[in-house]
Structure formats: C-alpha cells, structure tokens
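Preliminary data (for renewal application), cytidine-5'-monophosphate complex.
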Amino acid sequence: MASRVNESPMKSKVIVALDYPQASDAFALAEQLGFANCGFKIGKELFTHAGPDVVRAFVARGAKVFLDLKYHDIPSTVAAACRAAAALGVWMINVHASGGRDMLSAARASLAGCQPRPLLIAVTVLTSLDDAQLREIGVGDSSATQVARLTRLAHDCGLDGVVCSPHEIAAVKGDCGAAFLTVTPGIRPTGAGLDDQHRAATPTVAVRAGSDYLVVGRPLTRAADPRLALAELESEIARAARET
Ligand code: C5P
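Predicted structure:
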C-alpha cells in the first residue's frame, strides 16, 4: 500500500524556527502564536538540549513539526533515523542530498510504510559554503551548478522537495516541476534587519517566486509582540498570494 504523504492541511505557509536552548522558551513562543497556527522547526540546538520529548510535546499539542536534523550518514543509519523521526509524529524531516543516491533512496524507502508519512526534504549546498570552500572539499563546480545537480538527484530519488533560497525557487520548479516543494529560509519582512542572512528576501518576493513554506526565525522569536509579527507576516503572504 502506498503511504499517504503528510501533505500539509496547514493553513499557513510559515514555519517558525525555534532556535532556543530551552524547551520552555520554545513553548512560551508557541503558546503565544498558537500551536496549530503555523509550523514549528526544531533544529539541532533545541533537540540536543531537550531531546525527543520536546518534539512529542509539540506534536501532542497539534503542532506541525519540521524536525531539522539534516541527516547525513550511511544509508542504513539514515533510514533508521528517518523511521525514528516518523515515529515521533513529525510532519517534515530533512537529509543532506550530498549523502548520495543510495542514502536518499534508503531514506525515502524507510518512510514507505508510514501512515501518514513525513515530508522528506533535501538540503543541497549549505548557504555558508562559497565556491572557494567548495573547491577545498573537492567540488570544482560553482555552488549554483552543485545546487541544481543535487536538487535533480533528490527529485530523482523520490524526495518531496528541497530547502533553498527564495532566489533559487524558479530554477528548482523549472527543473523538477511545480509540485516539488521549496522550503525557504532567509526571510526578512520589509524593513526588518538582516541579522546574519546575506541573500534574504521579503515574504512577498518568496511567495511570488512560488515558495511553499517560509522558514522564519528571529523576525518572530525576537519580536516585541510575536503574535502581532506573525499576523503581519501572514497578511503580507496573503496579499502576495492574491497578487501572484
Ligand atoms: O532567524 P532566521 O530567520 O535567520 O532563521 C532561519 C532559520 O533557518 C534558522 O533556523 C537557520 O538555521 C535556518 N536556515 C538558514 N539558511 C539555510 C538553511 C537553514 O537560515 N540555508
């Protein structure tokens, strides 16, 4: 039986990055925003501090959890980790596309029996790597070429989409089709500071380009009024979607 994908009935395109060391801070933010009003990304920092219990607690409150652990290991290990993540009831997980075809296929196959199964997303080239650093690790092509290559590989192996910059959405959709998901960090509402993001885009630019999910951290986690900041973000997204 084909597994039914955990395709989001989520009414929001927003995934809030819970980049906190303390589970209590993550809960406090989610209480303010509403557990079911957007997605929540639990990454290596919070997971390493608080473990799978924090994931279970979010899932139990009805949250859509993107478990951002970027698995990259031998195929059997990644497959087992993906199964363990699916058993936590998360909505989305991710792996490094540079783990190669066998690893990607094993990850995808490991989720085949999950009802519903988590969305499986690939990380292509970390945005912290420039072309000089890629050369240093033996990748002679430009980052753009490598991103395109790994995106096609992930699509070929049956993954559901990629994490990419809003500026890469058109190329991803052009290569792999509109249904291949794009999950885009680096979102800064108009007028917000850039923090350490270099190639940021506004929610309007991301939505017009076709972003399926916008990962937003500090503009919400550090807002004086996170609930208001989310409402303003949702209005901007809705306006952009209407005009697209
Ligand atoms: O605070 P900010 O909105 O910049 O947070 C963005 C989130 O997306 C962080 O959790 C960060 O690790 C993640 N991310 C990113 N750029 C990537 C991949 C992930 O900013 N290329």
